[in-house]
C-alpha cells in the first residue's frame, strides 16, 4: 500500500474511534505502517484527543504525540492547546498559545472559547484587547465566543462594539452570530436590542426562538413569551423541552396560572415531550407564587420523581413569600426525609417563623443551623464601566478604589434614606448572627456586593447613565429596597440581573413588582386533569389530543 493510501485508511479509522483503547490500537497501526513521523497523522491523533476530553488518558497521550513531532504544524499546536484548555489546564493552554511559532485565527478562537467555557470571562475579553493590539481581525467564531462572555458578565459596552463589527462584516444574519447577539443583549437587560437583532435575522432556528422566549420569561414578561411561542409555531419551528422552560418561567413570573397549566399539558399532548423535573418545578413555582400553596403541594404529588428535593425547596420558597408556616414545615420535613436539608433551607424557614411571630420555631431553626454549619456561596457583583468590568465581593476590600467606594456608599445610603429607604429584616438578621452573603441574608454590618457596585457606578458615570449589574446570587430584600430608593433619589435606571431574574429599577419602582394573578379559574379541575395526564403520559397519548 502506498503511504497516502495507508494514511487515508488510518484517518478513516480515526473517524469512527470512540475510545482510548481503540485509539491505542490505531496508534499501533500507525507505527506498523511506518507513519509515526507523518505530521498530518499525528495532528489528527492529537486532535482526536482534544475532542475526546472525557476519555481518560487522552491528554497525556496527546502530549506524547506532540513531543515526538519535530516541527509541529500550527494545527498540531492548536490541537494540543485546546486539549489542555478543555481539560481545565488553562495556564498550560495559555503557555502553549503564547509560545506558538505561528498563531492563526483558529488559535485565538480556541483560547477565547477555552476561557469562556471555563467561566474565565475577564480573560476571554482580555483576548479581544490583545487581538486589537496585534491587529488580528475577528471572524464569526471569535465574535460568538466573546459575546458569550459579555453575556455572562453583562458587558453591554463591549457587546455593542462586537455588534458593530458583526454588522461591518455582514455577519449579523449568520444564525450563530445572531443567536449570540440576542443572548448577549437579553442577558445585559437590553431586550429591545435583542428584538431588533431577532427581526434582522433571515434564518432562525429553535435556539433563536428559545433565547427570546427564555429572556421574556426571566424579565417577567409572560405575555410576550407566549406571543413569541405562538409565532414560533406559525414559523414552523418545533419547540423542544427548553422552549417550555422559558414559557413556564414567564407564566410563573407574571402570574399567568391558567396559561402555564395549559402549556404544561401541551408539552405531552401536542408535542410529544415528556416534562422533566424542571418543568414540574416551574409549575410548583407557578402555583406557589400565586399563593395556591395547596395546589403546589398537590402538584408535587404528580411529579414522577417525587423524591427530588428541588420541588420541595421551591415550595419552601413559596411558603416564605406567603408567610405560610404549615406548608413551610411540610417542605422542610420532606427535605429532611430526603437527607437534602441545608442550612439555607433552615434560614428560609426561620424567616417564615420570624415573619409569623413563632419564637419557638425560630429558636429551633437557629439550633439546627448551627448543627448543620453554614456553607454559603460568596456573593459578588459585576458592573461594566467604560468597557471594563469591575467585580465586587461582599465587604469588598480588594478593589483598588475601595476607599472611594465606601465613602460614596455612605452618601448614597443617606440620600436613599431621605427618599424613604429603611434597612429591612434587621431583627431577623441580628438574631441569626453572623451570616455571610448567602443569597438568604447577611450580617447587619456586612455590605452586599451590589451596593458597592451601585455606589461605584454612581461615582464613575455621568448623571442619567443607566447602571447594569450582574449578581451571582439572588438580590436580598434589603438590597432590593435600597436599589429602588437609589433609582428614585438619583434619578437613574438600574438593571440588576440576579441568579433568577432581571430587576429593572426606575423612579423607585422595580419591574418585578407585585405578582399580578390574573386568571385563577378552574384550577381545581386542572389539578385533577394533571393527575390523569400523568397516567396517560406513560401511555404516550393524551385524551385531550384526540
Ligand atoms: Zn443584599
Ligand atoms: Zn425587583
UniProtKB/TrEMBL annotation:
The residue spans of each PPR repeat are 73-103, 104-138, 174-204, 205-239
Molecular function terms, GO-annotated: mRNA binding; zinc ion binding
One Pfam annotation reads DYW_deaminase
By its UniProt entry, which SUPFAM superfamilies does this protein fall under?
A: TPR-like
InterPro entries attached here?
A: DYW_dom, E2_motif, E_motif, PPR_At4g14850-like_plant, PPR_rpt, TPR-like_helical_dom_sf
Name the keywords, alphabetized. Answer: Repeat
Instruction: Please provide the Gene Ontology terms (biological process) for this protein.
Output: RNA modification
Locate the DYW domain: which residues? Answer: 447-513
Q: Which family does it belong to?
A: Belongs to the PPR family. PCMP-H subfamily.
**NCBIfam families recorded:** PPR
What's the name of the protein?
DYW domain-containing protein
Originating organism? Linum tenue
Amino acid at each position: 500500500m502506498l503511504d497516502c493510501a495507508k494514511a487515508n485508511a488510518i484517518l478513516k479509522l480515526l473517524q469512527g474511534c470512540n475510545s482510548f483503547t481503540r485509539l491505542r490500537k490505531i496508534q499501533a497501526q500507525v507505527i506498523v505502517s511506518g507513519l509515526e513521523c507523518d505530521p498530518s497523522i499525528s495532528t489528527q491523533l492529537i486532535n482526536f484527543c482534544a475532542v475526546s476530553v472525557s476519555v481518560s488518558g487522552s491528554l497525556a497521550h496527546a502530549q506524547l504525540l506532540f513531543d515526538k513531532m519535530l516541527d509541529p504544524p500550527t494545527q498540531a499546536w492548536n490541537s494540543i492547546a485546546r486539549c489542555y484548555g478543555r481539560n481545565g489546564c488553562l495556564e498550560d493552554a495559555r503557555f502553549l498559545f503564547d509560545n506558538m511559532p505561528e498563531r492563526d485565527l483558529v488559535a485565538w478562537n480556541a483560547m477565547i472559547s477555552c476561557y469562556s467555557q471555563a467561566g474565565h470571562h475577564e480573560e476571554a475579553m482580555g483576548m479581544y484587547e490583545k487581538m486589537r493590539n496585534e491587529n488580528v481581525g475577528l471572524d464569526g467564531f471569535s465574535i460568538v465566543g466573546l459575546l458569550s462572555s459579555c453575556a455572562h458578565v453583562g458587558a453591554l459596552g463591549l457587546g455593542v462594539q462586537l455588534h458593530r463589527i458583526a454588522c461591518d462584516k455582514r455577519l449579523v444574519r449568520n444564525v450563530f452570530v445572531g443567536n449570540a447577539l440576542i443572548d448577549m443583549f437579553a442577558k445585559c437587560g437590553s431586550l429591545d436590542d435583542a428584538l431588533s437583532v431577532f427581526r434582522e435575522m433571515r434564518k432562525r432556528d429553535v435556539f433563536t426562538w428559545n433565547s427570546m422566549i427564555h429572556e421574556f420569561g426571566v424579565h417577567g414578561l409572560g405575555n410576550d413569551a407566549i406571543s413569541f411561542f405562538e409565532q414560533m409555531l406559525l414559523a414552523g419551528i418545533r419547540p423542544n423541552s427548553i422552549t417550555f422552560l422559558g414559557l413556564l418561567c414567564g407564566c410563573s413570573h407574571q402570574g399567568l396560572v391558567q396559561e402555564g397549566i395549559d402549556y404544561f399539558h401541551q408539552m405531552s399532548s401536542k408535542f410529544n415531550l415528556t416534562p422533566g423535573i424542571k418543568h414540574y418545578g416551574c409549575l410548583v413555582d407557578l402555583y406557589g407564587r400565586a399563593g395556591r400553596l395547596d395546589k403546589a403541594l398537590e402538584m408535587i404529588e404528580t411529579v414522577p420523581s417525587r423524591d427530588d428535593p428541588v420541588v420541595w425547596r421551591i415550595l419552601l420558597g413559596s411558603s416564605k413569600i406567603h408567610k405560610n408556616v404549615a406548608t413551610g414545615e411540610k417542605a422542610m420535613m420532606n427535605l429532611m426525609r430526603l437527607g437534602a436539608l441545608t442550612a439555607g433551607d433552615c434560614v428560609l424557614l426561620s424567616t417564615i417563623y420570624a415573619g409569623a411571630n413563632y419564637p419557638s420555631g425560630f429558636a429551633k431553626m437557629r439550633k439546627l443551623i448551627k448543627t448543620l454549619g453554614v456553607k454559603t456561596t460568596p456573593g459578588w457583583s459585576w458592573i461594566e464601566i467604560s468597557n471594563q468590568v469591575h467585580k465586587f465581593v461582599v465587604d469588598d476590600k480588594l478593589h483598588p478604589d475601595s476607599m472611594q467606594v465606601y465613602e460614596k456608599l455612605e452618601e448614597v445610603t443617606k440620600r436613599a434614606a431621605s427618599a424613604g429607604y429603611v434597612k429591612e429584616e434587621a431583627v431577623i438578621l441580628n438574631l441569626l448572627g453572623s451570616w455571610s452573603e448567602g443569597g438568604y441574608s447577611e450580617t447587619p454590618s456586612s455590605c452586599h456586593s451590589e451596593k458597592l457596585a451601585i455606589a461605584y457606578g454612581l461615582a464613575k458615570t455621568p448623571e442619567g447613565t443607566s447602571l447594569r449589574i450582574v449578581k451571582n446570587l439572588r438580590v436580598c430584600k434589603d438590597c432590593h429596597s435600597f436599589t429602588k430608593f437609589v433609582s428614585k433619589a438619583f434619578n437613574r435606571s438600574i438593571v440588576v440581573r440576579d441568579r433568577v431574574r432581571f430587576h429593572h429599577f426606575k423612579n423607585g419602582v422595580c419591574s418585578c413588582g407585585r405578582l399580578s394573578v390574573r386568571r385563577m379559574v378552574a384550577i381545581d379541575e386542572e389539578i385533577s386533569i394533571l393527575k390523569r395526564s400523568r397516567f396517560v403520559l406513560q401511555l404516550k397519548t393524551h385524551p385531550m389530543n384526540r
